[in-house]
Amino acid sequence: RLCLQCNCPDISNFRGSRYLRSVLLGTNIIAQDIPLLCYSPSPSHWTKPTHQIRSSHIISAFGVPFSGTRMKSDEIPSIDQVFLEVPSLGTLKGISLNGKTCQYLGIPYASVPGRFRRSVPASEPWENGNWDGTRLGPYCPQPPRDFYPVPNAPRPWLDMPQADEFNCLNLNISVPHLPADQVKNPLPVMIFIHGGAFTYSMNSSPVYDSRILVESSASKFRRPTIVITVNYRLGVYGFLAGKDIETYNSSHGEAGVGNYGLWDQVLALRWVQKHISAFGGDPKQVTLFGQSAGAVSVHAHLLRGEPLFSSAILQSGLIRLCGVLSIDEYQSVYERILQALDIPIDLNPEDRIERLLSADSSALTKAMVPAFIIPVVTSPLCDDGVFVTGSIPSYDEYYTFSVPEWCPRVMIGDATNECIIWNKSWDNICDSPLASGEDLTVPTAALTLAKMESYLGSPKARMLSEIYDITSDTSEKDIFTKLEKMTTHGLFSAPIYFARQAAKGSVFAYHFDVPSPFKNAWGGMAHHSFDNVLIWGLLSHEMPQSYAKVSEYMAEAWIRFASGEDPWERHSESGKYKVFGLERTILTSKNDDLERGHQIWDKLHDLGLVADLARLSEELCLRRRELTQGVLVSSR
Which residues lie below 8 Å from residue 448, measured CB to CB, with a gap of 6+? Predict the structure, then answer.
C-alpha cells in the first residue's frame, strides 16, 4: 500500500515523480504532492498539511518495498538531451549523464499482437519519424514480491514506468559519450537478460542501470562498451502453455506453445543486429549475458543456435534451473490458472481459451500466486520441441555441454548461496508456517528426511543424507544450512561443474564468494543475485569501502571479456577457475579449493546420483509434483 492514511491497495497506481524525487533527496512530502500517486476516490486527507508517506512504501522495480537509499543533491548527474539518427527508424532523443554516458530508453523492438501470441518486429519507421528515449518503457505485469535482499539505487531524474502487457517489449541502450576522434572502431556490445524466475523484474530496475558500467568501461578500463538491457514477457504472459493454447497458436500459424518471452528475446537480438551500428556498436562483437533466469535464457539461445551473438556469460543458471515441463505437464498448470480465475474446466476448449484471453490483466496476474504454489513464483519453460529443436537437455545430459562454433567464448559461474532464493518453498517441511514478516523458513530434519525418502526411495535418500550429513538429530539451524547447500549443489553448482568439465578449454569458469553487507535475512551470505550489485556498480556508496576492489575487478573482467580478451585462464584440463572473494580474488583449481564441494560432486557422479539430486532439489524448491497435479491449493 502506498498511502498510510487511506491504505489504497493498488500498488500499480504509483506514478509520482515528485514523490520519488522528494523521498530520494530527503525532503518532506506535503499535501499537494499526494494526488500524483494516490487515486483514492475520497481523498479527504489530502487537506492535511502534515500528511507524509514513508520511503519504505515506494514499490521498487523488483516488486518489493523500496528500501530507502538516498542520493545527495550533489550526486545527481547533470542531464542534457542528445539526438541520434537511426536509419530506417528516425530521430531518437536520449539523455547524456555528466557528458559521459548517453542513454536511449524504452525503445520498442517488437509488439504483441495478442495474449499468448508470438511477438512481431516493431513497426518501422517510428511514428512521425521520432522516438522519445528519455523515459523508461513499460514492463510486463507481475505479482508483487514481499522481500528482496538488495536495495534500489536512487534515480530521481526518472519516473517509474507502468506495467503494460502489450507494450512492454523495449530496450534501454547506454553508450559511452566519447569525442569523435576517440572512436576509431565500432564498439563491443553487451546485451543483458535480467533474471527474476521468469516472473519478476524489468530492464528499468535501478540495479541494472548501465550508466556506471558504461562510464567505467571507457574511463577506468579503457575499453568503451555499449550495454543494452531487454524487457521481455514474464509469468503467464511469457511462458504459460497447454493444449488449448497450442491449438490457439496453431490457428494463427505459430508452431509450438509457450516460451513467448524467449521468442521476444530473439526479436530483441535481431533488432540489435540490425540497428546497433547506428549507435556506434559492432554487430559482430556482441556478448549476451544474463543472471538466473537470464542465464537460462542465454543457454536456451545457445541451444537454439541462431548466431545473434558471439560471446556469452551465464551467471548462476543453466537451461533447467526454473523448471522444464512437457506440454502435458503444463496442461496441469494451465488448469490451475483456469481454476484461479473461476473458469470452469469442463467448458469446451474454445470457450476456455476465449475466457482466458478476455480475462482482465490484473486478475490474471493475481492468479499466478495460488496457481504456482511457491512464494517466489517461478515460470517453467515448455519443452515444445520448437524453440529448442528436439528436446531440452535433461540433467543427465549436462555432461555433453558444448560451446557452438559460432559462439566460441563462454563464461559460466555460480554463487555460494544460490538456493536461498527459494527457501520459502520449504514451508512444507517445517513444523509451523512462516510467521508474518519472517524471511527465512525453519525446516526440520525429520520432515526433510521424510520428503527425501518419499521422492527418491530409501536407498538413494539414505546415500544423499549421508553425503550431506543430514540425520534425525540435525538441529533446525544446521538443517537449514545443509538444505540450502544441498539444493544449491543440485540446481546450480553440480550442473555447472559438469557442464564446464564437458566444455573443457572452451569456457571461463568462476565462483562468487562475496558476502552481502546489507542488513537483512540474507546478509552475510554470498547469495543469489548479489553478484549483480558488484558488476553494475550502482550501490557502491551503500557498501563498505572494502567491496570497491572486488566490484571493480568483476566489472572490468566482464568488460574485458566482451572486448574479446581473456579475463583469466580458460577452464582447460587443469581445471582453473576464478574465485571472487571479499578479501582476495584468485585463480585456483579444485585440488587447492577443497571446501568448494568438488569431491561431493565427483562422488555423486560415481554413485549415479547427480540427476537424482537435481530432481530432488527441483522438488524441494519448485514443488514440481504439486504444480503438475492440476489441483489448486489455497494461496498463502
Answer: 429, 470, 479, 483
Question: Which cell numbers hold the place of 587?
Answer: 585463480
**515: pLDDT confidence band, cut at 50, 70 and 90?**
very high
The dihedral built from the CA positions of residue 586, 590, 596 and 601, taken in this order, carries a sign that is: positive
Tell me the CA distances in angstroms from 212 to 224, 346, 392, 506, 542, one per residue in order.
12, 54, 37, 30, 15
* Structural domains of the chain, ranges and CATH numbers in brackets: 11-57 (no CATH), 395-625 (3.40.50.1820)
pLDDT, one tens digit per residue, over 580-632 is 999 889 999 988 898 899 999 999 999 999 999 999 999 999 999 999 985 55
User: Is the confidence at residue 66, as pLDDT, over 80?
Assistant: no
User: DSSP state, 277?
Assistant: G
Total number of residues shown for the chain:
636
Per-residue burial over 397-426, b if 16 or more Cβ lie within 10 Å, else e, is bbeebebeeebebbbbbbbbbbbbbbbbbb
- Decide if 258 contacts 134 (C-beta within 8 A): no
Tracing cell 520511503 back to the chain, one arrives at 55
B/e letters for 243-272, b = 16+ CB within 10 Å, e = fewer, are bbbbebbeeeebebbbbbbbbbbbbbbebb
Tens of pLDDT, residues 440-460: 888 999 999 999 999 999 999
- pLDDT at position 37 is 32
What is the value of pTM for the model shown? 0.89
